[in-house]
Structure formats: C-alpha cells, structure tokens
C-alpha cells in the first residue's frame, strides 16, 4: 500500500535503510504577508531531530521554512516506481480546475492525458498519481492509481479525460492545487482560493 507520500511503510531488517518525506508549501497567506521576512526567520529550520518509533533519533539536514505548515510521512521503503524520463514518453498532461472552492466541500476538476505523437502510448505500468491542496499550515496530499480497467492505451492523436473530485481542507485563503504523475514527470495544477461555506 502506498501512503500519502508514495512510500511503502515497512518493517526493516538489519542493515536496510528507509526514508520519510518532509513536505511544506509556499501558497499560504502567512508566506505572502508584509511581515513574511520577519516570520520566515522565526520559522526557518536548518536541522531537525526526528524521533524514531522504536526509539532513538536522527538529524535532518537541509533548511526549510515551516511558515505554511509541515507534513511528515510515515517511515518506509522508497516507492517501487520512481521518476523516469522514459515513462509514458510523449504524453502531455493538462488539468482544468475552478479558481475557487468551498472549505470542507468537494472540488471537481478534469485531468486530460493527450498523445500528440504519431504512435500509441501504453499506460504501463498503470500510472500512480498524487493529488494535493497546499493550504493553511498543512499540505493535504493523497496518492492513488489511475483506473486502467477501461483505458490502457492513449491512441496517437487522441486525448483521454478523467473527471475527478477531491476533498477541500478547512483552511480559508489562497492555496495551491497540484496533480501529478511523478514517474512520468507530468505535473499540473495552479492557484485556488478556498472560501468559507
């Protein structure tokens, strides 16, 4: 099973390594406020001590800004399918989503996979995609697999469009919506304003 950050939670044997994902965002009101620079210094971390479930700790190196919130995945083995420049070569991605969404509601949008090449593109392995809204103090990210039961190939010169929905977090204000197929380095999305219901 994939967790929300594309890792495989697992028990580790002696000598094996694992990882976790620390994610943050920049699309929040605090980051764009006039007092951002002063707040950024207060929220800047150069290294964090991360406690391990079985005891002990490790230090994370590399600065990041937590002013828009920080999400941390479970500890796990790396995902089996990593980004590859050859995966789904030639495939193009476009995402159409609304400019506004209601906090706590559902946001509908469409994802289109286009094949402008002169040859068919197989969706093999069936693509795993990540979807997220970065708002408030916490990134809201989930990982799924496309429904390949009906469409397994995008024919040359054709498009395939998927109608989707996702839950909108309760945070109100400017946010960033993201939809991607990491293995194929395909990314789409854009800004969205979350409004009160």
Brief characterization of the structure:
The chain has 197 residues and is mainly β. It is built from one helix and 16 strands.
Give a written overview of the molecule.
It contains 1 helix and 16 strands. The N terminus is likely disordered. The protein starts with 7 loop residues before the first strand and ends with a strand. It is 4% helix and 47% strand. The chain has a 5-stranded mixed beta sheet, with no helix packed on it. It has a 3-stranded antiparallel beta sheet with strand order 7-9-14, with no helix packed on it. The radius of gyration is 19 Å and the shape is flat. A hairpin with a 2-residue loop joins strand 11 and strand 12. The chain has 197 residues and is mostly beta strands. The longest helix is centred in the first third of the chain and has 7 residues.
List the helices and strands and how they pair.
Layout: E1 8-9, E2 22-24, H1 36-42, E3 44-51, E4 57-65, E5 70-72, E6 76-77, E7 92-96, E8 100-102, E9 106-114, E10 121-122, E11 128-135, E12 138-145, E13 153-154, E14 159-167, E15 173-181, E16 186-195
Parallel strand pairs: 8-16
Antiparallel strand pairs: 1-6, 2-5, 3-4, 7-9, 9-14, 10-13, 11-12, 11-15, 15-16
- H/E element order: EEHEEEEEEEEEEEEEE
Gyration radius from CA atoms, angstroms? 19 Å
Strand arrangement, largest sheet?
Answer: 8-16-15-11-12
Q: Which oligomeric form is depicted?
A: single chain
Question: What percent strand?
Answer: over 45%
Number of strands: 16
Structure annotation, total helices = 1
Mean pLDDT: 77
Query: Distance N terminus to C terminus?
Result: 34 Å
Helix content: under 10%
* Helix-strand makeup class: mainly beta
Low-confidence stretches: 1-8, 34-41
Principal-axis shape: flat
What's the main sheet like?
A: 5 strands, mixed
